[in-house]
Structures are given as structure tokens and as C-alpha cells.
């Protein structure tokens, strides 16, 4: 089985920037957008990082058994799928209040994470949330994203008429990732 290529994500730079000045960084997004992959890549590049994936029943059991010991770590601690163990939020708060260094925790979670009842009380003022969206066309093509900006600064009819993409091309692009085609790639022919 061939491994799919990893596309560079623009959210990676934002996450690294947030870790440089914030104690807890949350990468939030829908299922299958690459939260775990992105966080894992960052942890792999961080000195003394530890990665804990709560979709592993053994790891989840350890989190439930002793949440205080579970969140103790001197370097960056990645906890993936944090919504599976909301009892970790208060021990994380205690740890970052005790030691306020930036870049202590990198948490990932689904959109349900921000709806957790304990989140607002546990971590206000201690977190930064990075929203991870599906791959943009610019990320896939390794080019700047510009379609939305172009539509707002140019005439939409002109933009669509000068596009070489056909209807099936839009479906292919939407299935590949996000829906922001790169304007600079378009040629003079009508959309059919």
C-alpha cells in the first residue's frame, strides 16, 4: 500500500507560533482533516515531546485512572482527541498555573471539544485555538490560495469565464481537499 504524500499545512506555522507564546494550544477541527498528523509532526520536531493518543484504549484507561500523573511532563505534551477525557482539563490547568512556560500542551480535538462543559472554566486565558480545515487547493498545489480574494476583488462572471476548469474538475478538486482553486492556474476558456 502506497503512503499518500503529506501536504504542507499552513496551520502548522500558526500552531508553532502559538506554542511559542501560549501554554496550551488546541488544534480543533472536523474528523479526518489532519489534526493528529499535524500535531504529531510538530511533536516529532520538538525536543523532549511526548505523544499520547486517547483513541488507544490503554492510553485512555491510564488517563481515566490517574489524570494528574497523566498530564505531568517536562516538555511538550501532545494529547490527541482530548474530548475523550475531559477530566484531564483541570489537571492541565493546575500544571500550567504552577509552571506558566509557553508550549506545554498541544491538544487536538473534534468540533465537539469546544462544547465541553468543563472547557470554559478550566482553561480561559491559557489557550489558543487553531482551527484546522480540509486541505485548501493552494496547499494541495503548493501555491498561494487566492480564489476567494479574487472573487471579491474581481467580477465573478469574468473569473468564471476565464477558467479552464470544467464542472467535473470542481468535483475532483472538492474531493481532493478544500474548495479554493488557485486563480493563477486558470486559462481562457469557459466553464462547461
Layout of SSEs?
Elements: H1 10-21, E1 24-29, H2 35-44, E2 50-53, H3 57-65, H4 67-70, E3 77-80, H5 89-98, E4 105-109, H6 119-122, E5 127-132, H7 137-141, H8 147-153, H9 156-161, H10 167-176
Parallel strand pairs: 1-4, 1-5, 2-3, 3-4
Q: Could you characterize what this model shows?
A:
It is a single chain. The protein has a 5-stranded parallel sheet, with helices on one face. The model is unreliable at about 180-190 (pLDDT under 50). The protein folds into 2 domains: about 10-130, Rossmann fold (3-Layer(aba) Sandwich), CATH 3.40.50; about 135-185, no CATH class. About 40% of the residues lie in helices and about 15% in strands. By secondary structure, the protein is of the alpha/beta class. It is built from 10 helices and 5 strands, in the order H-E-H-E-H-H-E-H-E-H-E-H-H-H-H. About 30% of the residues are buried.
